[in-house]
Design brief:
The complex is a heterotrimer.
Chain A lengths: L15 H4 L2 H14 L6 H17 L4 H25 L5 E5 L2 E4 H27 L2 H12 L9 H31 L9 H6 L2 H24 L18 H20 L2
Antiparallel strand pairs in A: 1-2
Helix pairs in contact in A: 2-5, 3-5, 3-10, 4-5, 6-7, 7-9
Chain B lengths: L2 E10 L7 E11 L4 E5 L6 H7 L8 E6 L2 E4 L7 H7 E4 L12 H11 L4 H14 L16 H13 L5 E5 L7 H17 L3 E6 L2 H7 L2 E6 L2 E6 L1 H4 L3 H6 L6 H13 L10 H12 L7
Parallel strand pairs in B: 3-8, 3-9, 6-7, 7-8
Antiparallel strand pairs in B: 1-2, 1-4, 4-5, 9-10
Helix pairs in contact in B: 3-4, 3-5, 4-5
Chain C lengths: L2 E10 L9 E9 L3 E5 L6 H8 L7 E6 L2 E2 L5 H7 E4 L12 H11 L4 H14 L15 H14 L4 E5 L7 H17 L3 E5 L3 H6 L2 E6 L2 E6 L1 H5 L2 H6 L6 H11 L11 H14 L1
Parallel strand pairs in C: 3-8, 3-9, 6-7, 7-8
Antiparallel strand pairs in C: 1-2, 1-4, 4-5, 9-10
Helix pairs in contact in C: 3-4, 3-5, 4-5, 5-6
Classes of the chains: A mainly alpha, B alpha/beta, C alpha/beta.
Subunit structure (chain B): Forms a stable energy-coupling factor (ECF) transporter complex composed of 2 membrane-embedded substrate-binding proteins (S component), 2 ATP-binding proteins (A component) and 2 transmembrane proteins (T component).
Main location (chain B): membrane
Enzyme class (chain B): translocase
Chain lengths: ~260, ~290, ~280
């Protein structure tokens, strides 16, 4: 597997953030995404950066791994910055190249927007880095719970999500296996004209679908053999619970919000 | 084609928390025309090794030579495609790679990719389906209508149709019933002789290794644990136990006979009937094995 | 010995325009016995397994499990009594972690959470997988996944476990793991066991063997009786153990082998007796 596949992949750990209820994490991230847009002073940005970077550090995930994970979006962050530098013409002229003037306003605004961008991505990636996909599924099932009243198939949706999650690695291994088998029969997935490369996908996709259907069929049979008959009358082993830790974090986060509005200019 | 591994190491996902060294300074030489068996438990590096044989993987360190082709970390292999034409790989459960509308097209898929002309593809397809002992009528059927055993044979025919010099087999009998297993292995053994192939068999079966191979490599944790001719390697009980492998049953039995009767019957690939005669002679008190 | 499962003249086919997969099959499985079912691929042995817990229903004849006729109304009760482990370790692993997978069956049957927690522990301990509770399936070996599958079945506390070629896709180490697990489980709990297999080492250990050929019950007996039919077994595409073949050749070479040997020890004893008489 190539290293790009591990971006955002769950890293096991036992930090405070790992141990939080996934609903807490989702809620806080949701509000963090909202309040980032209210920051408008050095102090308020500093506060949010402190919160985000502090959270990241507390996960004990190696920094270089985090930074590597952000690599694909670095480009976007830098691009945003440069764009603002060129477009915004406020404040004083900072410096000029040829006939083009760069303004302090552009510099500051570019910096601010890039920082926002960085904070958003850092915090959201912390969710997937510290929470197993199944916990996220549980959280979604729980948070969508009220929709059951309007006959929304929450259980089925959650089961579907968890089975998909369960089979993603399996299907990825399968894809790799089949593509290697076909490469051994002379299929070239990498070079040649686009038309040929699109054609090369057929020998990969057909077996993949055939096998996915077979798996689905066998899985359905195994589930039935183990007594699965829908969500009704079913109990659950997994339990989410908001603990003392979650409360502390909520309090801390509320303090951050208050701090933010106090430091706004 | 001669195959040489020189200090080959392979590392999966280097410089990540998931880094894993699958092969470690592995060196060996396979003479052209030999039938070699590679044995080891899951995770011993067998399938990583296998993927070096047709350039699906390039060694992280060291160098692999196959005939005149060289594969190494820093050197991009020239003509990787022609290497793949010469090294046919039958993967585990090869029926999973079938995809064409008809058996004929699927068998011809490999040669077509290697730009073999239509006439020749036709000829090879017929030859291949005969080699795997399936009736020609099947050529026009969809591969997905066949039984599991037939699909396996079609997939194998697809590799044979590439007319390779080296045949790499990754547990080709997995999941077949006993008769199917015997037939498929005998088929490969015959092809090996008829076409003068170099055959590399990856297997768990000590019995198959003993029966078909003329050279054996046993892997452990990506390193070479034992190497040599079957009758030398497969009798080394202690060293095999060390990697949780059993000696082949016949050899185990003969060593038990030796323990009980104090007489040795050596194994030299004789069949069961022959063996029974020697045993009977010993039991009757014959002196021909003192 | 009481009967746990009874097949009465059972016939089955997947579609009306297709040939019968099973034809007039009758046999019984006793309580607490280990029955091995063998037969070439396509002989109908896996179909038998699926009929036992109502994954398939027969067109003719009837099947009784613990005195209950298997039909649409009774299948949910029967599935509590009959647990199944299938061939492909991947395609029966439902949970995202070992613990979740073991719980899946219990959740379906609506067991209370406290009981589930206890049974997850005990059944994982029974298969020696206690240290893998939060492992994800793709980080387990085939043998480990199959042990989890056995634990999941045990957790529901069935009376019969069917292993439908559960070792076919495993390496020798995985096979040994599973054989050892089954042996221990059968020793420690009152369970009937059916193994459908090609592996002769599994067959030898069973109490009784049912041989299927082309949809029909071909032979039934203890392993010794069955392997005595060496030539006929080979003819229907099955294999026999090394000692069985050797014993037959020894007879042909003029030795008077009295009793069909099942393992090396027995054959060696036999040879020793003959040797001392010479």
């Amino acid at each position: 597997m190539s290293s790009s596949m591990i971006i955002g992949q769950y890293v096991p750990g036992n930090s405070v953030i790992h141990r939080l209820d996934p609903r807490t994490k989702i809620t806080i991230i949701f509000f963090f995404v909202l309040i980032v847009f209210f920051a408008n002073s050095v102090m308020s940005y500093g506060l949010l950066t402190l919160f985000a970077v502090g959270s990241a550090v507390s996960t004990k995930i190696p920094a270089n791994y985090l930074i590597k994970g952000l690599l694909p979006v670095w480009f976007l962050i830098v691009f945003t910055f440069i764009l603002h530098l060129f477009v915004t013409k406020e404040g004083e002229v900072l410096f000029s190249i040829f006939t083009f003037d760069f303004y302090t306003g552009g510099f500051i605004q570019g910096l601010a927007i890039s920082l926002r961008f960085f904070l958003l991505i850092l915090v959201t990636s912390l969710l997937t880095l510290t929470t197993t996909p199944i916990e996220i599924t549980d959280a979604i099932e729980s948070m969508l719970g009220p929709l059951k009243k309007i006959r929304f198939p929450v259980h089925e949706l959650a089961l579907m999500m968890s089975i998909s999650l369960r089979f993603i690695p399996t299907l990825m291994q399968e894809t790799e296996k089949i593509s290697k088998a076909q490469a051994s029969r002379g299929v070239d997935f990498r070079t040649g004209p686009v038309k040929d490369r699109i054609k090369a996908v057929v020998p990969l996709l057909v077996p993949l679908f055939v096998s996915a259907f077979k798996r689905a069929e066998e899985l359905a049979m195994a589930m039935e053999a183990r007594g699965y008959q829908g969500g009704e009358g079913r109990t659950k082993l997994r339990e989410l619970s908001i603990g003392r830790l979650d409360i502390y974090i909520y309090i801390l986060f509320v303090l951050v919000i208050i701090g933010l509005f106090m430091t706004r200019s | 084609m001669d195959i040489t591994f020189k200090d080959v190491s392979y590392i999966y996902q280097p410089n990540t928390p998931f880094e894993h060294r699958a092969l470690s300074e592995l060196s060996f030489h396979i003479r052209s025309g030999s039938f070699i068996a590679i044995i080891g438990h899951t995770g011993s590096g067998k399938s990583t090794l296998l993927q070096h044989l047709n350039g699906l993987l390039r060694p992280t360190e060291g160098e692999v030579t196959i005939g005149t082709y060289k594969i190494s970390a820093d050197e991009k292999t020239k003509n990787i495609k022609s290497l793949r034409e010469k090294v046919g790989v039958v993967f585990q459960y090869p029926e999973h790679q079938l995809f064409e509308e008809t058996v004929e097209k699927d068998i011809g898929f490999g040669p077509l990719n290697f730009h073999v002309d239509q006439e020749e593809i036709k000829r090879r397809t017929r030859e291949a389906i005969k080699a795997v002992d399936l009736p020609e009528e099947l050529l026009h059927r969809s591969p997905f209508d066949l039984s599991g055993g037939q699909m396996r044979r079609v997939a194998i025919a697809g590799v044979l149709a590439m007319d390779p010099n080296v045949l790499v087999l990754d547990e080709p009998t997995a999941g077949l019933d006993p008769r199917g297993q015997r037939e498929v292995m005998d088929m490969f053994s015959n092809l090996h002789k008829e076409k003068k192939l170099t055959t590399v068999l990856v297997t768990h079966s000590m019995e198959d290794a003993l029966r078909y191979a003329d050279h054996i490599i046993i892997l452990k944790d990506g390193k070479k644990h034992l190497e040599g001719p079957p009758l030398e390697v497969l009798v080394r009980k202690k060293e095999l136990e060390h990697v949780q492998l059993d000696v082949p049953e016949v050899i185990q039995f003969l060593s038990e006979v030796e323990e009980k009767f104090g007489k040795t019957i050596s194994y030299h690939n004789q069949n069961i009937a022959q063996l029974a005669k020697e045993l009977a002679a010993m039991v009757k008190g014959g002196d021909d094995h003192e | 010995m009481s009967q746990f499962i009874e097949f009465r003249d059972v016939s089955f086919r997947y579609r009306e325009d297709q040939p019968w997969v099973l034809e007039n099959v009758s046999f019984t499985v006793h309580t607490d016995e280990w029955l091995a079912i063998i037969g070439h691929n396509g002989s109908g042995k896996s179909t038998i397994a699926k009929l036992m817990n109502g994954l398939l229903l027969p067109q003719q004849g009837e099947i009784l499990v613990d005195g209950i006729v298997v039909n649409e109304e009774t299948i949910w009760d029967i599935r509590k009594k009959v647990g199944m482990v299938f061939q492909n370790p991947d395609n029966q692993f439902v949970g995202t972690t070992v613990r979740d997978d073991v719980a899946f069956g219990m959740e379906n049957h609506g067991l209370p959470r406290e009981l589930m927690l206890k049974r997850v522990q005990s059944s994982l301990a029974a298969v020696g997988m206690s240290n893998y509770q939060s492992h994800e399936p793709h980080r387990l070996s085939g043998g480990q996944k199959q042990r989890v599958a056995i634990a999941s079945v045990l957790a529901v506390a069935p009376e019969l476990i069917i292993l439908d070629e559960a070792t076919a896709m495993l390496d020798p180490k995985g096979r040994l793991e599973i054989m050892e697990t089954i042996r221990q489980v059968q020793e420690n709990q009152d369970l009937s066991l059916i193994t459908i297999t090609h592996d002769l080492r599994e067959v030898i250990k069973a109490d009784r063997v049912l041989v299927m050929n082309q949809g029909r019950r071909w032979l039934e007996g203890d392993p010794r009786e069955v392997f005595a039919e060496k030539d006929a077994l080979m003819n229907i595409g099955l294999d026999t153990p090394f000692v069985t073949k050797l014993a037959a050749e020894l007879s042909a070479a003029g030795l008077n082998i009295q009793r069909e040997p099942l393992n090396h020890q027995e054959l060696l004893e036999e040879l020793w007796t003959l040797h001392s008489k010479m």
